[in-house]
Design brief:
Blueprint (H helix, E strand, L loop, with lengths): L6 E9 L12 E9 L9 E8 L27 E11 L9 E7 L3 E4 L6 E2 L16 H14 L6 E4 L5 H12 L3 E6 L2 H10 L4 E4 L6 H8 L4 E6 L3 H10 E9 L18 H5 L3 E4 L9 H13 L16 H6 L23 H14 L6 E4 L5 H12 L3 E6 L2 H10 L4 E4 L6 H6 L14 H17 L4 E6 L3 H7 L3 E9 L14
Parallel strand pairs: 8-9, 8-11, 9-10, 11-12, 12-13, 14-15, 14-17, 15-16, 17-18
Antiparallel strand pairs: 1-2, 3-4, 3-6, 4-5, 5-7
Helix pairs in contact: 1-2, 4-5, 9-10, 13-14
The chain binds NADP nicotinamide-adenine-dinucleotide phosphate (NAP).
């Protein structure tokens, strides 16, 4: 376990360069640097170990050149930053001491030396999930509190519409409105989200805006008497349709307009005159202006959470769907007591893939010392572990992977006895001429192309296992499985973990 003063490795998500349009995963990359675990004498910085990180819509603005909200901007070559929860390891700041839990702006890395400490807030209530401080008890929660109580102030019996309703902000607004006695409808972009709103979060109604050709008609269906309060998160066509359906003295709390963030030319709004016709008040706001209310906010929200009157599903799951983001927002996965290992391991060795490897190895196939083990997709999260388990058990282990880098990784880093790139064969001709091609497997060949590929797989297998295979950890299926089968030894075991080569085919291979 790392101690203060140690120099330790620090996995980081680095911002590559400024972007235009929609951000992509390739705009960031992963690297491992080092950090000395100490705050220098005289500095007011705080050194933290990051526990939870959140990926929020506003971060896409920080990836652009030009003006950004609150002046934040990522620096090319430096770690991405955003809201997170962290544990203080060392502090030169009078308000924070070692062992404190804090939330605020931190880096997308394992350890951060935070010099701009203004956003850090000490966590004093730890009887609720810590991840809530990236959601209901953090920036999104504060945004909701400001929008709900300070800007729109819905009253009992009023008609409330929330767009992007399943998002971190929208789902809390809907629940606040229900607790106040309002009629609440939300819009979201999938059936699952609509079900979540209606069945788990207590919205009176919800609809999938992507399935509505006429948003005006959809709103009339759900609000025959009109809308008193609209919590605006998307802008564009939705805002135009809402304006037509607002009631007199209606309020629009303009929190965000996510549909407009990445388009070259923002859409125009045609129905703004309804603001005048119906005496509508539309007000923009940002959480930044309301942190003086944070203690009051906690007084309101904590009892709701403890009494389970309000839940935060966004802080418990990844809400963006990018695998890169998912891996580094371990935020949305509850962290157990073992924080002396890299946090990201909870999405790998110590998480679901580790469990799959453990079960496949020890419970399903139980390799014994000296046995011959073949693993496909060998550099993947599950199988790199299986191979290492097998080596620790004294087996001979060979893996297949899809690039030279992965083959090197498997051989040099994970200690496999051998590995090969199943996509490459220097001499396909020679492979085709091999005498073993007359084995029964040949009858399955359907075309020359498949025949070539299949014979390559076959060649690999018999080249690496002249005495046959005792155990095959199956992850790819198709031609590789076909090639493995005739090479299995008596009493061989195949642990079928997955068949990834078949997942996206219209017709699985026979
Ligand atoms: N003013 C502030 O201080 C403040 C603070 C936090 C957030 N915000 C704003 O509040 C909004 C929601 O934030 P959040 O944290 O709740 O976000 P979130 O949890 O990331 O959810 C955002 C949701 O927006 C929906 N969306 C994305 N693109 C869309 C489009 N083109 N049209 C319609 N819906 C779209 C998606 O859901 P669907 O599948 O339903 O489309 C997405 O899941 C954003 O506009 C954000 O910028 C403002």
């Amino acid at each position: 376990m790392a101690r203060l003063g140690d120099e330790v490795s620090n996995k980081q998500v680095i911002f590559r360069d400024y972007v235009q349009g929609y951000p992509k995963e390739s705009d960031m990359y992963l690297t491992t640097g080092t950090i000395k675990l100490e705050v220098l004498e005289g500095s007011k910085a705080v050194l933290v170990k990051n526990l939870y990180l959140s990926c929020d819509p506003r971060m896409q603005f920080f990836m652009r050149q030009g003006e950004t909200p609150n002046g934040y901007k990522f620096k090319p070559g430096s770690p991405v930053f955003g809201y997170g929860v962290a544990k203080v390891l060392d502090s030169g700041h009078p308000e924070f001491t070692t062992g404190d839990l804090v939330w605020g702006i931190t880096g997308w890395e394992e350890y951060s030396l935070i010099t701009e400490t203004e956003s850090l807030i000490k966590i004093t209530h730890t009887d609720v999930p810590l991840s809530y401080y990236t959601g209901i008890l953090g920036m999104p929660g504060m945004t909701v509190y400001a929008g709900f109580y300070e800007v729109a102030a819905p009253k009992k019996g009023e008609y409330v519409f929330v767009s992007a309703a399943s998002g971190a902000v929208g789902q809390l607004l809907g629940q606040f409105a229900k607790l106040t006695g309002c009629y609440v409808v939300g819009s979201a972009g999938s059936k699952e989200k609509v079900d979540l709103l209606k069945n788990e979060l207590g919205f009176d109604e919800a609809f999938n805006y992507k399935e509505e050709h006429d948003l005006n008609a959809a709103l009339k269906r759900y609000f025959p008497e009109g809308i008193d309060v609209y919590f605006e998160h998307v802008g564009g066509k939705m805002l135009d349709a809402v304006l037509l359906n607002m009631r007199h003295n209606g309020r629009i709390a303009a929190c965000g307009m996510i549909s407009q963030y990445n388009i070259d030319e923002p859409e125009g709004i045609k129905n703004l005159m309804h603001i005048g016709f119906k005496w509508i008040r539309m007000q923009g706001y940002t959480h930044h202006n309301y942190y003086h209310l944070y203690p009051k906010f906690l007084d309101v929200v904590l009892p709701y959470i403890r009494e389970k009157k309000i839940v935060d599903t966004a802080a418990q799951r990844d809400r963006r769907g990018s695998s890169f983001v998912t891996a580094y927002t371990s935020s949305h996965k509850q962290l157990q007591q073992h924080t002396d290992v890299p946090l990201s391991y909870h999405t790998g060795h110590l998480g679901m893939p580790g469990m799959a490897a453990f079960v496949g190895f020890y419970e399903v196939s139980s390799p014994k010392k000296g046995e011959y083990v073949f693993v496909s997709a060998a550099s993947g999260a599950v199988i790199q572990l299986v191979g290492q388990f097998a080596k620790l058990s004294g087996c001979y282990v060979v893996g297949s992977a899809g690039s030279r880098e992965k083959v090197n990784l498997v051989k040099n880093k994970f200690g496999f006895d051998d590995a090969f790139n199943y996509k490459e064969e220097d001499d396909p001709d020679a492979a085709l001429k091999r005498p073993h091609l007359s084995l029964p497997i040949e009858v399955l060949f359907r075309s020359l192309e498949i025949w070539i590929l299949q014979s390559l797989c076959f060649l690999f297998v018999i080249t690496y296992f002249p005495e046959g295979i005792d155990i095959y950890f199956e992850n790819v299926g198709g031609k590789t499985l076909d090639a493995v089968l005739p090479n299995m030894r008596l009493h061989g075991r195949i642990a079928v973990c997955g068949m990834i080569s078949q997942y996206n085919l219209e017709q699985p291979e026979a």
